[in-house]
Amino acid sequence: MAVMGVARFEQLFREAAGLDVDKDDLKRYNDFVDQKINDLLIMARATAKANGRDVIVWKDIPLTQGLQKSMHEFVKLDQNIELRPILEQLTAQPALDVELDEETRGRLVEVVGGMTLALGRTFTILDPGVRNPSTNHWERAFLIFDLLL
User: What structural domains and CATH numbers belong to the chain?
Assistant: First the structure.
């Protein structure tokens, strides 16, 4: 990720949850995004197949109410940060070999943005005093997301 991308990544976590993350957290964050998009697409693929389709459409993506709320908040926040082009790079190559329709491919950025906001806020729920999440914080947050997504 380019230097400007790192700065925006840091700004997103700062504005979303009052956290200080740095470029060293980017690997963990990239792993998180890859894993969670993969998990969502596995379920979406099953839904598409159950409906007789080979292409995943937007309604196939299993979005909880909480994730949808975080996605809406991300869209508002992104107007100031302009992280969309950076997140598009993360979602450009879905982890699975599946076909996505154009709307779904375009809206994965919102999903990643919503998950990012929820991740940042999860850190502060796990440890209300945290400013810079440690490896332990990241691992515990990942376990929570594994249970829910």
Answer: 3-148 (1.10.20.10)
